[in-house]
Amino acid sequence: MALDKAAVAHIAALARIRLSEAEQEALASELSHILTWVEQLNEVDTSGVTPMASVAAAGLPMRHDAVTDGGRREEILGNAPRTARGFFVVPKVVE
Amino acid sequence: MSDPSLLALTLAEARDGLARKSFSARELALAYNDAVEEIEPLNAYITPTPDRALDMADAADKRLVKGEALPLDGIPIAVKDLYCTKGVLTSAGSHILDGFLPPYESTVTDKLWQAGAVMLGKTNLDEFAMGSSNTTSYYGPVENPWHQPGDNRPLVPGGSSGGSASAVAARAAVAATGTDTGGSIRQPASFCGIVGLKPTYGRCSRWGVVAYASSLDHPGPMTRTVRDAAIMLRAMAGHDPKDSTSARLPVPDFEAALSGDIRGLRVAIPKDYRVDGMPGEIEALWQQGVEWLRTAGAEPVEISLPMTRYALPTYYIIAPAEASSNLARYDGVRFGLRVDGASLDEMYELTRAAGFGAEVRRRVLIGTYVLSAGYYDAYYLKAQRVRSLIAQDFDSAFESVDCILTPTAPSAAFAIGDKCDDPIAMYLNDVFTVPANLAGVPAVSVPAGLSGEGLPLGLQVTGRPFDEETVLRVAEVLESAAEFRHLPHFVAGGGR
């Protein structure tokens, strides 16, 4: 699969990474090269094969739905680039 | 003035010396703090923690004096800067985690401190553990302490746990933690002439380790000897309710498994690992390894793992897919770097553009693409299906053999800057290591010989899930036969 500049721009928007035009151009060729290489998997007949998401044998462990931790607002906010009155601050999202 | 002769001790020797009171934990920590400073030109450490090392050593000394020593009391170790350490910068080698001071400790490092180990500092790595050369770190490349004789060009230590490998090889840590998603413990161990063990998936908790590809990430030890790896693994392993994939299994005494007796063990030699372009000397070393094990009483068996050749392309779909999801959390809101923008989206985009390096960006974009509408089945589901077949290859092999012997990497260490313009050439470094990550089986790299250029080469032993004991036992037999006593060109304390 060859990706063009527009396709790269679309993926980058989905991934929330700003790219310059020149970067889009360069990545179109790099990513196309990688995608062409991984497409060798099409040689493998996988009909009827179950996809494997994890090697961990057991199912998800269950526990009681109870509070086990908390009251750590200061610690949680401690690494934030910007906070106010106990909240994370982000640019305005409501017009 | 600290005593540089202490730097030559293995973990087992240091432990025994501390127990005999031949030296104190403080003396050992002082020697290693000096060593960390001395190897600064290798750029192996991002954040040394010398004061913390001395505090922890003093606490260990108190227990040692009272005869209440813990299993790793006073042992100075380095921690890959992917493990969260409470109150100590945890960077993942990335600009985007600028200034991040975790408010918690990873389970594995917590276990190590609970066992009495002493923290020397945090080691450099490829950004978010994505790389095979430790050249993608925001904190700059790490150098391998090995050079080709008569050639001063700096070589890569391998990656992504390159700082840990370089520090252990240069005697600036007794042992270190690494993480291995596609070979990131074993390939740098091979490049630096040390032992690197990727345990079974689920053996060591991933909680508090910055996530790259969650179904493939494995914490594990990097050490100077196989015995040291066994000692470290015992301290690092165990069930953790905070990691839903952590195995509910007892932790064996791995050191006790090192009996040296491998008589009758069936060791598989997979013919599919004879890849095109592999140097003859690696093929020869592999053959030598087979002979060493045969001499020790094991029975070599040729097998086929036919799906192995698809392991790398499978990995380069699954790992980026998981990475694109895991790395969505770096958005400039809760921790690390923020670049301001007029809108929330613009802030995200500018922050992530400034914070992620080229390789991370590449993998996040590939991962986003293979998970996106219209391509999910063709790429991601396809790769997960091939992953099933790769795991089945191992399952069927282990019905008739006890372990598998292969080279660790298709080359020795290369010069810093080589293979950087071609991502796929770089990815090929992991051709022999990636299959064990996809299947979740344990594998260890042992230094087995030198290349024609005088650089270390490792052999890899892979085993059944949760049978690290056999893997380590075979590895120790290889280690004894290989008698790898070579030292790198640059070691702290002068080296002898």
Features:
heterodimer; A: 95 residues; mainly alpha; Histone, subunit A; two-stranded antiparallel ribbon; B: 496 residues; alpha/beta; Amidase signature (AS) enzymes; 15 helices; 11 strands
Concise structural overview:
The complex is a heterodimer of chains A (95) and B (496). Chain A has helices spanning 5-14, 21-38, 73-77; strands at 83-84, 87-88. Chain A is mainly alpha-helical and 95 residues long.
Record the SSE blueprint.
The complex is a heterodimer of chains A (95) and B (496).
Chain A: H1 5-14, H2 21-38, H3 73-77, E1 83-84, E2 87-88
Antiparallel strand pairs in A: 1-2
Helix pairs in contact in A: 1-2
Chain B: H1 11-19, H2 25-38, E1 45-48, H3 50-65, E2 76-80, H4 107-114, E3 118-123, H5 162-169, E4 175-180, H6 186-192, E5 195-198, E6 218-223, H7 226-236, E7 266-270, H8 280-295, E8 299-303, H9 311-326, H10 344-355, H11 358-371, H12 376-400, E9 403-407, H13 423-427, H14 434-439, E10 443-450, E11 456-463, H15 468-482
Parallel strand pairs in B: 2-3, 2-4, 7-8, 7-9
Antiparallel strand pairs in B: 1-3, 4-6, 5-6, 5-10, 9-11, 10-11
Helix pairs in contact in B: 2-3, 5-6, 7-15, 9-11, 9-12
Note the overall shape of chain B. Answer: globular
Question: Strand percentage of chain B, roughly?
Answer: 5-15%
CATH class of chain B: Alpha Beta
**Average pLDDT value of chain A?**
93
Envelope shape of chain A: flat
Strands side by side in the biggest sheet of chain B: 1-3-2-4-6-5-10-11-9-7-8
